[in-house]
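seq:
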Amino acid sequence: MWEREEMEAAVEAVLFATGRAVTEDELARVLDVNRSKAREIVSDLSIRWAGETRGTEIIELDGAWQMCTRKAYFPQLITLELTPRKPHLTEVLMETLSVIAYKQPVTKAEIERIRGVNSDHAVNKLIEYGLVQELGRAKQPGRPILFGTTQEFLRAFGVSSRETLPEINPAQVADFRKEAEKEAGADAADTADTADSAETAAIEDAAETADITDTADAADADLPLIDRGSADESTEVQI
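struct:
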């Protein structure tokens, strides 16, 4: 038979690990005691916690018990939740951002054609970070949305305009093209878009010297549009 302190410690561990209300029957099974004894243990633990200075408490919910945060500390939790976070740009996000930066204004379909995979999540995440924005709609069937980079993107990567983005290294383009042709067994025409891998590399080079700060609020800012005039006829901007 466990000691009383060990039983209370076990209850605490169960309530913490589950993150939900645990019934007295479940606690009884875990402690290998009857339901009445389980209720006594968890109830005493709850009462003792209530008399101590703790950030958490154990509350009863219709025959079940749950560990939760005390209401008195909600302001601190809200402050933490609202604290600006540094965006984490994964390889997928960097690749998508590179396509948008060098091809803008560009539709999501064009992004996916270049990358070869669905890009909904990546584009939405970049918009959330404030690095990408909607520029307007293309004069194409369905009027797809055109995407481009924001001022926050320029600040984050330390460039003053789209024209000052790092140039794509021709040697890198050739290397990527050869690799793509070798892996896919395709001819050069089918792998023309491998240049976008070099664009990713160029963007990453710029990122090494720039600090990407949080841009959660930047997505809602009224930022000027970036270089719309470079659109070709197939992606003409119509606001």
